Amino acid sequence: MAASRDRSILRQLVGDVVARLDANTHATLNEAFTKVGMPPNSPEEGTKRERVERSYAQVPDSHLHTVALNLLANGYATTAQRIGIEDVLWAEASPPEIPSRVRRELARSLDLADLVRSESRFMGMLSRFWALADEMSPIIDAFFGTPGPSLKRDIQEHVFRNPGDWSTEDLFENLGAFETGDARFARFLEALVSADVLLDEAAQRHLVAAINAHVRAAGIELRETGAEGGYPSFSMVSTRLALNRKPKNIIFASLTKPDIRFQSAMDNDIEIVGNRDDSLVYDRPTPEDGLRWRDLQTWWQDKHEIPTEADAKTSLYRRLRRSLPDNSPGQQNFFDCYHQILGTKVYDHPALLPEVWLHWDHQTVRERGPQALLRSRMDFLLLLPHGQRIVLEVDGSQHYTRDRGQRPDTAKYAETMAADRDLKLREYEVFRFGHDELKDATAARVLLEQFLPALFQRFNVSSGTT
């Protein structure tokens, strides 16, 4: 219910911006539609406003996110409209709550002088997150002949021209930072410590430490996640994610149960013996921004000394697909649709790893008895930025019935639920699909065209557009 309400709010906000497209002529309107991702129509279909309304009405909810981003990127929105749309889009990722008390105690602890090393850089950053001036200010100023009040002028006056007039708490109060959405506040903190604002690594790290001392109480922290222009970049991540648990070996795309032995038990170095081609073992470090198809393809190309990227892409895709069970069209459709929907964008999206081994035991479940590890393999695994792990399961009737689907089996269902709990305690997120949802290729594509963008938005996977 909340998701549909938010989508309704987004449609209204985007609609207010879309209405501004009627500033085009009839001749240029279709070009504007195409630029923002809306369907074209004929000049004979009414007035410009009617054409805009008709085109927007044809935009499905699943495509609304893309239209919103395109409108913002092309500068159609006013500052207030942009902020309203951003707040709804960013909230879709379910950001962690940052209570008002944490925000205020943080502001009281920060020395404003540590934040404002460069006026132009600082003001430029603030303008990305806050409405510093009324859209009508230039007109009002011209009418009265003297500058009127504005937040931008107040900041310039009390922060830069007269240092000491305002504290960090005063600045946050005037910006509205104590009441703004959790996602905007978190992104604001990321921007405060970025190289766009602070061209001094020591100053960046000092400010990060000061901020983390307070926001960790909300279960988040600024963590170094990359570099930009030679300076570290920091992202707000959950401290509840598993720390320093990057996979050392990912055993996946298995055709049979792998025969594993330790080359060095002390170093956790494993070896697949027997037919080594029956399982793939990704043994490179997992990047901070997750394991993308690009990373997987590079590993595959190097491992097999494949001369061209095109050949590597084709052979890797075929090898992964070959590992999918013949008796699960749903899994096959999921795999195919994932790559069809993303197309060339798949290179910078998480690699969809099939048939991934979670547990391995040389004894069978029957031999191990009550101590057996539940769910040896995962249908699909996505390794996302900042250590986030997503398990995607396609459930056939064998998960909850016996006698080939003839009778319900509560014991099997209980095992499935227990295995899910185990995964979640190990910091995996689990999404289950019924096999019947995916057994038809067309229905599977419609479902995943809605699910995948929402998943990537929820877990802050940067991607071009999906």
Layout: helices, strands, pairs:
Layout (H helix, E strand, L loop, with lengths): L1 H17 L7 H11 L11 H10 L3 H13 L5 H13 L8 H10 L9 H11 L7 H8 L6 H11 L6 H8 L6 H11 L8 H15 L4 E9 L2 E8 L11 E3 L6 E6 L4 E5 L6 E3 L10 H12 L4 H14 L6 H14 L10 E5 L7 H4 L8 E7 L5 E7 L5 E2 L4 E2 L1 H16 L2 E7 H4 L2 H18 L8
Parallel strand pairs: 9-12
Antiparallel strand pairs: 1-2, 3-6, 4-5, 7-8, 8-9, 10-11
Give a written overview of the molecule.
The protein has helices at residues 2-18, 26-36, 48-57, 61-73, 79-91, 100-109, 119-129, 137-144, 151-161, 168-175, 182-192, 201-215, 293-304, 309-322, 329-342, 365-368, 410-425, 435-438, 441-458; strands at residues 220-228, 231-238, 250-252, 259-264, 269-273, 280-282, 353-357, 377-383, 389-395, 401-402, 407-408, 428-434. With 466 residues, the protein is α+β, with helices and mostly antiparallel strands. The protein has 3 domains: 2-91; 100-238, no CATH class; 250-458, no CATH class. Helix 6 runs antiparallel to helix 12.
Briefly say what this structure is.
The protein is of the alpha+beta class and 466 residues long. Helix content is 47%, strand content 14%. It has a 4-stranded mixed β-sheet, with helices on both faces. Strands 1-2 form a two-stranded antiparallel sheet. A two-stranded antiparallel ribbon has the order 3-6.
